[in-house]
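dumping the sequnces here before i forget
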Amino acid sequence: MDQNNTPKKNPLSMQLDLSKFSDASFAPATEEEKRQQDVMSESTTFFKDGMRKLFKNPLATCSLVLLAIILVTIIVAPMIVPYRYEEILSVNGKRDKGAKNLAPFTYSEMEQQYIENGGKRFPHIFGTDEQCRDYFIRVIYGTRISLFIGFFASIIVLIIGMLYGSVSGYFGGRVDLIMMRIVDIIYSLPDMLMIILLSVVLNELLHFESGTIFARLGTNMISLFIVFGLLYWVGMARLIRGQILSIKENEYILAARSIGATPGRIIRRHILPNCLSVIIISTALQIPSAIFTESFLSFVGIGVKAPMPSLGSLANSAREGLQSYPYKLIFPAIIICLIVLSLNLLGDGLRDAFDPKLKR
Amino acid sequence: MTKYIIKRILLAAVTVLVICAITFFLMHAVPGGPFNREKALSEATIAALNARYNLDKPVGQQFLLYMQNLLHGDFGVSLKNGREIKDIIGESFPISARLGVSAMIVALVLGTVFGSTAALMRNKLPDRLIVFFSTLFTAVPSFILATLLLLVFCIKLQWVPVWSANSNNYLLPVIALSAYPMAYITRLSKTSMLDALSQDYIRTARAKGVSKLKIIFKHALRNSLIPVITYAGPQIAYIITGSMVIETIFTVGGLGSKFVSAINNRDYTMIMATTIFLATLMVIANLICDLLYKLVDPRIKYE
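..and the predicted 3d for all of it:
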């Protein structure tokens, strides 16, 4: 740049004084200078950052490991253990009437004889129950059912709550007012009483063809899902509505709207990803509450259908022989507590990792 | 304030009405009338019975009649033993109420004491113990805790007699029922106490030279109690449903165990009446808690 060509600077002007710059200032950057601009650390995404924080939390990591162990066990164990959950024990095709209420790792007389004659018998790890069924495999299946119910119920709650909450929050105004009044009323219904009532009634009304998964689960569980779908989504809907109300004020939503994006697209592409953390956390915390509800219902006598075990119904039926066979209560009880505890701790950990604002 | 109170009361009234309607119409959807016996009754008898209990009228009219009876305190008769449900509730509810109220008091008092202690002794041994146990107890379903208590203290150690109608031993049922709410209130009051302790007015009070005890009890504790009140409403609902299980396990003859046996016996009129009764109770309890919350903390805006 030529010194003579630069206009003289007014001393009071705030403009840059071009005469102070030499030509070198405008030369292209050298390789070395370019390298200084390189970002040394790897760029992190929201998800990666959250997971890193989660794994720094020892309690959450422990719960994650524990849940993984339980999951692997309930998947692998039925392949190894040669008994089925509804199978009444028999030796060489003959019903083994002595295999009633065996203590853990013991055999009945018939089995003892069979082993002495050179036969092989898989040990009853948790003993057997009052109907001569292997208790270990029943507890495994009970855990499967309870986890399945917890997970599936949370998904139902998530889907309905998300749809309702996002529509109500996005459109606002009168739509929001009416939709939220409905939520208020449903929210103040006593949920447990309504579940009991609906289960009692649906039990009489619903009939499924035998053989389908519905028939095996029993009408009680189907009505539990129906009730979750009808009542439990309101908490989720409120949460998501609140999130959306604050997110939709952002400029990028305005920008998206001004280039003509449809409401559905704005909700899907711009709003929901931004409240993902809240959704993940509350879903994680919903699972243990669903497991609690299921075990409560099984206890009251409107849980899963008879041969099918759940942790709640196993604990309930263990009450009858409590004095003589306390271990029958202890096993399902410990597993319920471990699952609920680790899911609770994992939920807390997720909350701390993904949404520090939510921390109470 | 008045506007808010009226609005809340109206919402509560609508909720109760909705509950009554849901309960009534659901119970009506159950196939089979109340007079389906093994021995078939003659058609004339059934018609006479239907006329006697207004079952021949349209459903809408039956609902209005039922509501009218409810408002007069008439819950109908139990299908199983033919007793007036009003009398059954009258004699069993006081037992449940005593159990529930004691459990609630225990949970609130011990919960705030433990929570505040944990907050005041942060990161020391008592705090860690309290946090450990409160986390543990929020993961134990009440029926498991109750059964374990029964097994250990009544059967193995025989310290406490098993509940019977004349012994009136509420100790174990109250412990079992209050464990979960207590654990929850402990966690809640710990965080709110920590929050209160970090406020500016606490620093000011300390700078003025107010004694430590006075700061804790007069300034911090009072303010930390506000969030606990909000939680008391849902806790009452928990205690009512929880007492069903606890009463069944300890064979306490309260309304909760009556409800469970009504469910198992498919005693529809009893289920219907008890649901409406307990649900109304929960709605009223929630209403009172909400109003109390606004009353205690004037900073909260009325919408």
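The domain at 59-77+134-354 of chain A is CATH 1.10.3720.10 (MetI-like fold).
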